[in-house]
Amino acid sequence: MKKCLFAGTFDPPTVGHKAVVERALKVFDEVIVAIMINPEKQPTFTVAEREKLLEKTFSSPRVKIISSSGTVAALMKETGANCYLRGIRNGTDFDYETASYYLSEKLYGEFVAMYVPCPQDLLHVSSSAVRAILKFGKSVDGYVADGAKDLLLALYEEKKRDGTSAKNG
Fold this sequence. Notes:
Elements lengths: L2 E6 L6 H10 L5 E7 L10 H11 L5 E6 L3 H8 L3 E6 L2 H18 L3 E6 L9 H9 L10 H17 L7
Parallel strand pairs: 1-2, 1-4, 2-3, 4-5
């Protein structure tokens, strides 16, 4: 079985993430979407909330959603993934992902990385853009999957009301 690992913060997941996974499903039998828990980041949404949003974003039974606080290389070995999938929007993304790849390769050994260009009409879409749109009370249509939109709005309204944000939990 050909598996790839698509890891990120997904705070929140976007239509760009969905497009990358849909393209990968044309090549791989299974795409493992991994929420990486980074203690240096202060996400808006908890891991459990991001898992629910990802479940609403991806309807294919060939997409598996997990979370991890370990390294990508260790997670690839643990899941049996053959390839590390990365979405690329621009040259900055390419440079960052390539540097990260070489560092991981040096630390953990060789593995295959696949860069999937983001569809041109989604180049402006990012999780940080979605958070900004939410902050200013504008529509997230076209930025998040239709299936995840209502949940995203409900979670965000709850956080505004409670004055809370995730602390990697």
